[in-house]
Design goal:
Number of helices: 2
Strand order of the largest sheet: 2-3-7-34-33-32
Number of strands: 34
Helix content: under 10%
Radius of gyration: 20 Å
Length: 410
């Protein structure tokens, strides 16, 4: 069933340029990934502790690096955003709203439909063929959507009726047909209810997946999954996975969050963004509340090396901002949200950080997807204004946005 909302048409009236590119006639993006887009200015100032330098005014085809455009305006909070090879646009929906559906295909600037169907989106805790809390999502070269379904996080008191605890899962769907092609409930000894694997990187070549578990019931960890054997391994033996004593600040406010017991305290969130190099041999990650960006050979997980060997191989490769989403391009550049400054930063292959774009539209940017045409897509969902980060009060102001920024990369 198609859902359409009247979404505050005046919200973007302060923007000076409206560029209409257009959706395909059947609700898919056109083959050139054309979309309705609102052009936004680029700023290049920073007070981040990582001190990014302004990005050079490079251009490609007349588009300046850092050009920001609005793709979609939604009444629900988009999280991870991807496009498939046919230009179809998908996003997970943040569970903080307990909003159905949890995975949608965006069919126009303000319209969407549940994906793969309404049954999968019928509500939390409804069975192995229903979503619980899918957040992280990536797409592989076979057009499969891979999702980290966090399970049910019972300790969070959000004012709604409690839910039965359920373990996290790794799911995959054919993005063209909607067929569920992978469905693995993570074992209790590795990811019991209350753990929180919410972002992921997938290596379809060597058939491995890596999930970033911020912890709660356990210490923060990397969850490595052999997709062929379905063997699951938990690695939590390194301080780089844990939060540093760094506040999560957005819009001038220090954010709080419930801990594993439900006690409200200053947010301290461990490993969150996780990415793979283009050759699939290096894993990159960092804590959300932390200023370090780390690497570890993915080959060690594939070879089932012991914890001591993996821990000894972890290297701090760069400074980073307090961030949520990240992605790595084919040139070894890492793009990260900069939550405190409403910005997107880039760490190059040498570890230098530059500002890509800073704009007051970017209120809690989420995960990234770099499309084949050089545009990078992200969801913006004002999560800091949600009840769980805002002392029980909903202060979000729809529409929530899907944006794209020109990077000129691939």
């Amino acid at each position: 069933m198609m859902r359409q909302q009247n979404l505050f048409s005046q919200f973007l009236s302060r923007r000076t340029t409206l560029k209409t590119i257009g959706f395909g006639s059947v609700g898919y993006l056109t083959s050139t990934l054309g979309i309705f887009a609102t052009n936004s200015s680029t700023l290049a100032q920073s007070t981040s502790p990582t001190t990014p330098s302004p990005a050079p005014p490079a251009e490609d085809g007349g588009i300046a690096i850092g050009t920001l455009e609005v793709v979609a305006e939604l009444p629900i909070r988009p999280t991870a955003v991807v496009l498939n090879s046919q230009g179809r646009l998908f996003t997970t929906v943040h569970w903080f709203d307990r909003q159905e559906p949890q995975l949608i295909e965006v069919t126009d600037r303000t319209t969407y439909r549940p994906f793969p169907d309404e049954r999968w989106n019928r509500g939390f805790g409804q069975g192995s063929d229903a979503f619980n809390q899918p957040l992280g999502m990536v797409i592989d070269r076979q057009d499969r959507l891979w999702l980290a379904d966090c399970g049910i996080f019972p300790a969070v008191n959000d004012g709604n009726p409690p839910l039965l605890a359920q373990s996290p899962r790794l799911l995959a769907f054919d993005s063209n047909t909607g067929q569920n092609v992978f469905n693995l409930a993570l074992p209790q000894d590795t990811c019991p209810p209350g753990t929180y694997p919410q972002d992921l990187a997938v290596d379809e070549v060597n058939e491995f997946a890596y999930l970033a578990d911020i912890g709660a019931a356990r210490q923060p960890a990397i969850i490595a999954i052999n997709l062929k054997t379905q063997q699951v391994r938990r690695f939590e033996a390194h301080s780089s996975l844990a939060a540093e004593n760094v506040d999560l600040m957005l819009e001038g406010k220090k954010l709080t969050f419930p801990d594993a017991t439900g006690t409200i305290q200053a947010a301290r969130i461990g490993i969150n963004p996780i990415t793979l190099s283009a050759d699939k041999n290096t894993l990159f990650f960092g804590p959300m509340c932390g200023l370090g960006w780390y690497s570890v050979p993915a080959t060690l997980f594939r070879d089932n090396a012991n914890d001591q060997t993996i821990a000894a191989a972890i290297q701090r490769v760069a400074n980073k901002p307090v961030c949520n989403g990240a992605t790595t391009d084919s040139f070894g550049n890492h793009f990260l949200t900069n939550l405190g400054e409403n910005a997107i930063d880039k760490i190059d292959a040498q570890g230098s950080i530059t500002r890509v774009v800073q704009d007051d539209l970017i209120i809690w940017g989420e995960g990234f997807h770099i499309a084949a045409n050089g545009w990078m897509y992200t969801g913006v969902n004002q999560l800091n204004r949600s009840p769980l980060f805002n002392s029980g009060e909903e202060a979000g102001k729809p529409p929530y946005l899907i944006l794209r920024v020109w990077t000129g990369t691939r």
